[in-house]
Design a protein that fits this description.
Structural class of chain A: alpha/beta
Number of domains of chain A: 2
Largest sheet of chain B: 8 strands, parallel
Radius of gyration of chain A: 18 Å
CATH topology of chain B: TIM Barrel
CATH architecture of chain B: Alpha-Beta Barrel
Radius of gyration of chain B: 18 Å
CATH topology of the largest domain in chain A: Rossmann fold
Oligomer: heterodimer
Helix content of chain A: 10-25%
Order of helices and strands of chain A: EEEEEEHEEHHEHEEHEHEEEE
Low-confidence stretches of chain B: 1-11
Structural class of chain B: alpha/beta
Number of helices of chain A: 6
Number of domains of chain B: 1
Helix content of chain B: 25-40%
Strand content of chain A: 25-35%
Order of helices and strands of chain B: HEEEEEEHHEHEHHEHEEEEEHEHEHH
Strand order of the largest sheet of chain B: 3-16-15-10-9-8-7-4
Shape of chain A: globular
Mean pLDDT of chain B: 93
Largest interface: A-B, 36 and 42 residues
Chain lengths: 272, 322
């Protein structure tokens, strides 16, 4: 698969502030990149002051507004730690937009049901915004602070159903519980879109199969180059025409063929 | 190849300065000494939107064997201080897949494509070499005898003098294309290996491939790579590579392509001074895709500053006092 239009640019930080207890919201001015962005795509960002950590960091694109786009991120390591110390007016190197994103439902098409594990919600905002049908967003996390974008989705007119594992916000339990209940009520004409940890995606794929509904999953893999050359971010994908022609699967790149894959295509038995 | 070397759209700053950046690798002429290292640039097309490939010295594609290769399980790479360890396992489309999917793009480039090839037997190396010889339009073949992540093939050939000579000689027999042998750093002394490749008919040497390495998660006590070990690349290996280039340059007459951790022109010039006739940018492509172009511009600046007309004047100019 050949990639869509992408640009490498040095862009300016408009703002970079704590959004919730655990997440930062980074807004970048990128007039040439912003209009190219499709739902489910990502930006590959190099934190220029970071010397010893070489690689860019991939981030799902959250919102696009005018000539800016934004990402939500958690400080988890060197890269995001250095990023959190940067402020408005400073510059970052960005390659974007990258990846094969979600299929935006057509007018009068399936009703989207979004399933997000914590941070995964940010990756699906553009999809919700650009979908002609409003649907239901199921968002789950371990605790209250893991739940993101609830207000933003409600402002789009979406029904948001929150679950937390400790019951500190919304219903207690896993995000798949209200999803199954909803599909039991009515699965017809619905399509699942999911982004979150691999375990959750695997569960969503199984649910989609049981209820015979289509599902698109955004896979979260470690990446180096982000453009399809290093072959770090591969996932096993079923194919009748794979290079091995022995087990009917091959490794495909999350950064190029993905990050969004059809749930039926993933060779789950080959995943870790 | 001469027409390929002259790119009218080139923005390389030596165009009207009378400086000559071109270098000769066997019978292959490159418009400048800066290429991209195998495995860090895919098949060229992936980077076509981010830089003008026709400004490079050459494009070197990821290693190809006769048949498609699935590659290793994940995780396949891990970032370490000033470097990267990888164990991709040479995932690739095989000769037929490459010719179908990538060659139509590459053959239209104005700069040469160097095909990195490998096999699990001496015969397979020769078979692959024969296929690319027959294809027509290939700039050169780079023999990968040094990948640390493949159980059979790969580095077993590059760390055994007899096997190395056999692979090179077998390929030499089936093609007149320039042969570049990509050397393993994992040998006690590189000089005899460099000589063995030269004597078996190699036209040039690429020095070096990645260095065998490992990283462990201290909480889970598990290796960070599914393959347990991998190959270290990036700026942290540059001093090792510079030393190997310097040693090999004293042992052989054929040109050396220096690589290992090049991030900027100064890094590249250091390799030239050590004795490399050309260089390749590797891991830096992953984070700064235009590194090679910046290196080309920086070499021109260096030549201007030092009043040099030929890039060759830099090659092997190290003053060791010996």
């Amino acid at each position: 698969m050949l990639a869509g239009p992408m640009l490498e640019q040095t862009v300016q930080i408009v703002s970079n502030e704590r959004d919730t207890d655990s997440y930062f919201r980074l807004v970048l001015r990128a007039p040439q990149i912003a209009p190219l962005i499709q739902p489910g795509q990502f930006a590959h960002i190099r934190v220029l002051p970071l010397q010893e950590a070489l690689l860019r960091r991939p981030f799902s694109i959250f919102q696009v507004e005018g000539d800016t786009f934004s990402i939500l991120y958690k400080t988890v390591g060197k890269g995001t730690g250095a990023l959190a110390r940067m402020g408005a007016g400073e510059e970052l190197s960005v390659i974007a937009p990258l990846g094969h994103g979600f299929t935006v439902p057509k007018h009068g098409g399936e009703t989207p049901l979004l399933v997000a594990g914590g941070y995964g919600m940010a990756a699906m905002y553009l999809l919700a915004q650009r979908s002609p049908q409003k649907g239901i967003a199921f968002v789950g996390g371990r605790k209250r602070i893991d739940i993101l974008c609830e207000k933003e989705f409600q402002a789009l007119g979406w029904n948001v159903r929150v679950t937390t594992e400790d019951g500190s916000h919304g219903a207690k339990g896993l995000v798949t519980k209200p999803l199954i209940a909803e599909l039991k009520r009515n699965a017809k004409g619905r399509k699942l879109f999911a982004c979150g940890p691999t375990g959750m995606l695997k569960a969503v794929a199984k649910i989609a199969e049981e209820f015979n509904v289509p599902a698109e999953l955004s896979m979260d893999e470690h990446m180096c180059c982000g453009v399809g050359v290093c072959l770090t971010c591969v996932i096993p994908v079923k194919t009748g025409d794979g290079p091995q022609r022995d087990g009917g699967w091959e490794y495909q790149r999350s950064c190029t063929e993905g990050p969004v894959f059809d749930a039926r295509q993933v060779a789950w038995e080959e995943t870790k | 190849m001469k027409s390929k070397a002259q790119n009218p759209k080139s923005k390389i700053p030596d165009a009207d300065s009378g400086m000559n950046l071109s270098v000769q690798i066997g019978k292959l002429k490159l418009q400048n000494p800066v290429m991209v290292a195998s495995g860090t640039f895919g098949y060229g097309v992936e980077y076509a939107q981010l830089l003008d490939l026709n400004q490079l010295g050459a494009v070197v594609v990821k290693g190809i064997r006769l048949h498609p290769v699935r590659g290793n399980p994940t995780p396949r790479t891990v970032e370490v201080t000033s470097g990267l360890i990888n164990a991709i396992g040479l995932q690739g489309p095989g000769v037929d897949g490459f010719i179908k999917k990538y060659w139509p793009f590459l053959k239209k480039l104005k700069v040469p494509t160097i095909i990195n090839i490998w096999g699990t037997t001496v015969e397979e190396y020769a078979d692959v070499a024969r296929r690319f010889d027959a294809l027509g339009g290939v700039g050169a073949l780079e023999l990968n005898v040094s990948c640390p992540n493949i159980k059979e093939g790969g580095s077993q050939f590059g760390t055994d003098l007899k096997l190395l000579a056999q692979v090179v000689a077998a390929c030499r027999k089936v093609t007149k294309l320039p042969l570049i042998t990509k050397m393993s750093p994992n040998v006690v002394s590189i000089a005899p290996f460099a000589k063995a490749a030269e004597e078996a008919g190699s036209d040039a040497l690429s020095i070096m491939n990645s260095y065998p390495a490992m990283a462990i998660d201290i909480e889970t006590r598990k290796p960070k790579l599914a393959n347990v070990t991998g190959g270290l690349t990036g700026p942290c290996i540059k001093p090792i590579a510079v030393k190997l280039v310097w040693e090999a340059a004293q042992a052989v007459k054929i040109p050396i392509i220096g690589m290992g951790g090049i991030q900027n022109a100064a890094d590249a010039i250091e390799f030239l001074v050590a004795g490399a006739a050309a260089v390749a940018v590797g891991t830096a492509n992953f984070y700064e895709p235009r590194t090679a172009l910046q290196v080309i511009a920086g070499i021109s600046d260096f030549m201007r500053k030092h009043g040099l007309k030929e890039v060759r004047e830099i090659v092997g100019s190290v003053q060791t006092g010996k």
